[in-house]
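User: Sequence in, structure out. Go.
Assistant: Echoing your sequence, followed by the structure tokens.
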Amino acid sequence: MRKRLLIALAVFGVLAIAASLIVPRTLPFALSFYRSDILFAVPTKDRRVFITIDDAPSKNTTEILSVLKKHGVPATFFIISDRVSTPTQLEEIVRGQHSLGNHLQTTKACSKLSQSEFQTSFDSCAALIEASTKPHFFRPASDFGTRQQIAYARAKGYQAVMGTMFPMDHWISDPDWLVRLSSWLAVRGGILILHDGAIRGQTTAAVLKRLIPKLKAAGFSFGRLEESEPNQALQPTAPSGRG
């Protein structure tokens, strides 16, 4: 009985190690195969990752920008237009040489919106951010969105972007765990998803303070989403290996 238990534990340990190595590499491929109309990772031969911040702006945006400036890395801020109180909030992001993306008018999930409601929400956010810069990217709110919704965004000149470096900061608030999960999921071309907001924004700033140096030490650099082909989602290809 004891021998069987030891064998079972050994098998479980091997499977856990295999999963820890395989999942980060295969996740972008699997999701891109499932939804080829959405960009889940940036095709690149370099050990490069891409930072994105959802649900901006907030009172914590300035702190996030300060961390990015200190480490000299760019990010794309996906804007919820109802959270913008003054144009200076967006101008501050653009002045920091970061990008703006469309994250709709409110946080209501795309799956809860009719096509008409989606188009109104998308256009409202687009009009606001296009007054500050030329945006290229759209992130569906709370889910992948329908193919019809993504097609509408594409017709407006926006590439739909998700990501696989998602440490689940909707549910996890401990910066230690968020740094660990983000590091585990880091692969070349990986798109990191963190959140701005009254509470999550402060957590994101704390995570980036530690995560950016850790990824740099692991040999990663940080790129801009604009490096990807506009309106060209990552096509399924065989995984090229971790990092």
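User: And one key feature?
Assistant: The first strand starts at residue 48 and ends at 56.
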